[in-house]
Prior knowledge:
Largest sheet: 5 strands, antiparallel
Strand content: 15-25%
Order of helices and strands: EHEEHHEEEEEHHHH
Distance between the termini: 150 Å
Radius of gyration: 58 Å
Number of helices: 7
Oligomer: single chain
Helix content: 25-40%
Amino acid sequence: MTNTAVSYGNRANARRAAEKLLTAGIAPAVDYGITLREDGRFVIKWKVNSAPTTEQVEAELTAATEAATSGSAPETGAEPAVTSDSEPAAADTTRTEPESAVAENSFPAGTWVKVRKGKRKAIVGQVTQRIGSNTWRVHEFGKPESWTQLATAAQLSCAEEPAPEAPKPARRSRRSTTITPAKPSRSQYAINADMIAAGKVPEKPPVVTSKANPHYQKRFDTLHGYAAAGDWDSVRDYKVTGSNSYSKMVARYRQDLLALHAASEVAQ
């Protein structure tokens, strides 16, 4: 069948038109060809297979019936199976035992082994139990009891029991330093406890070493002068003002002087 209604100027256009019809599912056949007409244009020639005639169908049925009633099997290229009365060869009893059977008792529980985990990495551990025909569970040395891993015979080799690890020193943090608590000591501006118990007034008042607070030296001197002269009422009535550290030191010195006086009265 030739599509004479439509012609194309070149072969490529005719081929594209045929493929478009096939894609759309409206082509009259699956196969086609491109034919050149006498006028120089190209047309699509669809290759449609004609239906078989009645005579052809009857001839095929007759041939099939005769082949079935003749009893002759169709020839095939396959040769009949050759049977042999010879006995099968005896099984080879000289085979070696499988590696898994050989290695079955090589690593009983408690055995120290080396486990190869790579070309350059290996660990030492102790076998805890056998899992499969070729697998064991190993506890890694130096790890918690729950730290175990599976290993095969190819990874394992016997090893000696390692020496116990020395305790590691405690790590010290760079950010925090341990401060040893200092022994309790009285301030340099306070009176010694032994002198207070003896009721003895110090020979000199405390010396203020701070260059920013030299004026507090006068307060220490005043209190010491009252105590040395025995004017304890003036010591008791001396007013200490301010809330900084030096004011607190002056107040403490006054308190120590009064304690010293009380101790001296008890001794008398």
